[in-house]
Description:
Layout: H1 6-19, H2 27-52, H3 55-64, E1 67-68, E2 71-72, H4 86-122
Antiparallel strand pairs: 1-2
Amino acid sequence: MLSTQPIYILPETLQYLNQQCIVAPIYTFLQGMVGRVVTGERKRITQLLADALTPDITRQLDGLLQADESAFRISVLKREPKDFSHKGLRQEVERRQFFAPLHRSRAQRAARCRSNSVILARS
């Protein structure tokens, strides 16, 4: 399981050091090292997201975190329509229309990545 929680990283680090026959440093050094690595990785991923997200997508993602009536909009992702009634189908259409731009942006980015990897593979 992949996790950025230090409680999972530290045992993996100790196991790696043991497999490589490397004497583990003192615990406080390992704590500091894991903390720096986790912080650095979070900053790196945050910067990648900041570079990749357009203002429009950022606004839409912020909208997902807004609460309406009784729940956050993001929780709609988990819910399936209760039935095929007119109201249920209308809500599903609205939900898909709301998320369509996010999906298109993701698909376009994936296509660019694939085309870049093909170009790199040919060179």
